[in-house]
Design brief:
Blueprint: E1 6-11, E2 18-27, E3 30-41, H1 48-55, E4 61-62, E5 66-71, E6 74-79, H2 82-89
Antiparallel strand pairs: 1-2, 1-6, 2-3, 3-4, 3-5
Helix pairs in contact: 1-2
Length: 94
């Protein structure tokens, strides 16, 4: 994924960790995100992980941001829409 792109990423190890943030680097060694937030839960109105990347977590739960997050074993990286980014950055916790 290109540096500066806002994404939702999942780790390959179970249980999944789902994180959203701006790509700092994406290499074989791992993915580094700036201003990262964990998507703890998304509601059924999100319509799954792709829906989170398209529209946001709905009535979900999003953690406060951290400056940097580094994931070592990444399974998926999905580019977010501006709408999804705004919804995630609002940090809903319902």
């Amino acid at each position: 994924m290109t540096k500066g792109t806002y994404v939702v990423a999942t780790t390959a190890l179970r249980p999944w960790t789902v994180v959203a943030g701006t790509v700092v680097s994406d290499t074989a060694a791992g993915l580094t995100l700036r201003d990262a937030r964990m998507i703890v839960y998304w509601s059924s109105e999100a319509h799954g992980l792709f829906g989170v990347a398209a529209r946001g977590p709905g009535a979900g739960r999003v953690s406060p941001r951290v400056d940097l997050w580094v994931g070592r074993v990444i399974e998926q990286t999905i580019q977010c829409t501006p709408e999804a980014r705004a919804a995630i950055e609002a940090e809903p916790w319902r």
